[in-house]
Amino acid sequence: MSTLEKNVHEERLQTPEVLYILQRIDAIDEKYDKKIEGLRSEIKNVRDELKNEIKETKKEITSVLWRILGIIVAVQGATIAILQFLK
């Protein structure tokens, strides 16, 4: 590009219409950046909530399994006692 072409090109970019469009694009970009940041925050909160629920569920399952194991041990003990009694 010649110097004259560059000057004409730069002058066209400095028109009020172009500047207005650029301002509007910046405003829209900022608006959507805020929305995206809000969504990221919501996703993080949901993820943390799910992690906590998974931990609680894991604790509950472990508790149930220990109770089942306790019942199995008790039944084995009772079975041994009954068998010894029947001898």
TrEMBL record:
Coiled coil regions in record:
29-67
Mind telling me which Gene3D superfamilies this protein's record contains? Answer: 1.20.58.130
- The residues that cross the membrane are 64-86
Task: Supply the alphabetized keyword list.
Answer: Coiled coil, Membrane, Transmembrane, Transmembrane helix
The keyword Membrane belongs to this UniProt entry's keyword annotation: yes
Please give the name of this protein: Uncharacterized protein
